[in-house]
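Sorry to interrupt, but I need a hand with the structure work. Go ahead and set the record down below:
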Amino acid sequence: QARYTIKLYAQTVHDERIIHELTRARQRGVAVEILTTTTIPRKKEKYLQQAGVRLRHSHQYYIHAKTWLFDHDSAINGSINLTSSSLDRHRELAVITHNPEIIRKLE
């Protein structure tokens, strides 16, 4: 469980469970930042913003890899889309690392 920061880079964020957990983390005082290349549905975007989650959209780069960074000391990088079908039904992969050099490059 992140104590200080969560940074999420993903093509999109739609899954209500993930959105809920990100807002819960923010309510615990964790700084939460999401960078996407597509728009988040307006109702979900407003919910995240009201919770204090920082949202950014990249128009310059297309993000296909999904990367989670936690507290500057752990990261998950892989093909897992943040949707219920990807999380529950599809075969996806991800790598977890605690290597400071790799994490620094991902940030």
Remarks:
- The chain has a mean pLDDT of 89.
- The first helix runs from residue 16 to 27.
- Residues 3 and 93 are 25 Å apart (CA to CA).
- The longest strand covers residues 31-36.
